[in-house]
Amino acid sequence: MTPSVDSSPVPPRGRRVSETIEQLRARILGGEWPLGGRIPTEPQLVAALGVGRNTVREAVRALAHAGVLECRQGSGTYVVSTDELAPVVARRLSDHRMAEVIEVRRAFEVEAARLAALRRTPDDLAALDAALAEREAAWHADRLAEFVEADAKLHVAVVAAAHNAMLAELYASFGTALRATVAQAMGDVLTPERYVDHGRLVAAIRAGDPEWAAREAGEFLEHPTGA
Q: How does DSSP assign 126-181, residue by residue?
């Protein structure tokens, strides 16, 4: 009797690499390999993932190109980001493209405010109030770096209140660019003419008025002088 032979098709090389990339990404996002930490060596990955050395090498190279991993000569490969879009946005961020960043902010934040007015929960409103209070405290204390961070935190809270997971993920990738536009708008010191009241934005979301919320979110970015 002729021995049976396993005739299961071998996945094409491109598909094996794609599947390996997804496995690596899952382990990074799952926290198995934390941000700043070193991932296992190539032989260890080959054994753990059950694929060939070349497949592992290509998958690691792809994630390094995406800005998620960084290969350091003589040291190993490290997790430098959990978000593949963030490094791309950061690489494209420069002063001469700041106008484009503002346009993208409007696209994100106007729709987020509109949705937040429709979907906000009591917990969302509490988070917005806390972020607004933190922003105001930083302003009155004349702490520029704290104000930039608090302002960004408030905008993130608005996006979270929209309850759109994809929007939140995309906006998270925009964090560096967001802070850069706020910092540029503020300059070296906090001055009264650069102050923008975000209390009305929070009030519009609390009132459940999507048009008012969208208008408040977009108005200060139309001709940006504040954050």
A: HHHHHHHHHHHHHHHTT-HHHHHHHHHHHHHHHHHHT--HHHHHHHHHTHHHHHHH
Its pTM stands at 0.62
d(CA 15, CA 101): 35
Domain boundaries, the chain: 13-82, 86-222
CATH topology of domain 13-82: Arc Repressor Mutant, subunit A (1.10.10)
Q: What is the pLDDT of residues 73-85, one digit of tens each?
A: 888 999 877 766 6
Task: For domain 86-222, give the CATH superfamily.
Answer: GntR ligand-binding domain-like (1.20.120.530)
pLDDT digits (tens, 9 = 90+) for 157-197: 999 999 998 888 788 777 767 777 777 777 777 778 778 89
Angle between helix axes 122-140 and 144-161 (nearest 10 degrees) is: 170
- Whole-number Å distance between alpha carbons of 54 and 44: 13
Determine the residue type at 63.
L
- Torsion over CA: 210, 211, 216, 219 (sign): positive
**Which residues lie across from 77 on neighbouring strands?**
71
